[in-house]
Structure of Two component transcriptional regulator, LuxR family:
Amino acid sequence: MKPIRVLLVDDQALFREGLATLLSVRPELRVVGEATNGLEALEKTAELNPQVVLMDLRMPVLGGVEATKRLRAAYPHVRVIALTTFDDDADVYGALRAGAVGYLLKDVRAHQLVEAISAAARGESVLQPSVAARVVAEFARLTEVQSPTPLAEPPVERLSERERQVLRLLASGASNREIAAALRLAEGTVKNHVTSVLGKLGVRDRTQAALQGKALGLL
């Protein structure tokens, strides 16, 4: 299988170079280029055709949120993961609204970052646990504001108990590997459960599954 093509976007040269070194030792990944700001990220994407872009948010010339919005509009097949120092609401919701499929902080462990890149390339969403919890909480708040009448009884019977366990863990931001460890299952079995959960909830990715699960009272 061909390695995943990754573009690094960050205005801090030392961090960018360290990240490139870290990822270059992984055979499943290939760092195809680096960019120092959002505008350069757009140019590099057109030139290098990455599958996944690791995007810092606060950069000169063009910030990561606006760059993500433009990049997703021009290259919808490219997956963007926000990789930043900041986790305030404006950054989190701005990046996700712009089309980022993931949001990670720069203190993330190396193996978690590699798993996130692989997941994004497969079409999955990846959120740091603290960020995932805030997104779900914000969705719940908006649901309460916009739905003054009680919601219909959630169709909890549609998910098995194991699927609900998987849903709760993925809503916390856990990867398939972490879910497998927590539930003592094979990673392939977890992948099958996640696929089943997404299908039963009628959603495309893990973030939407978490939001839908919260709306239906499953979390």
Summary: The longest strand covers residues 29-35. The chain has a mean pLDDT of 85.
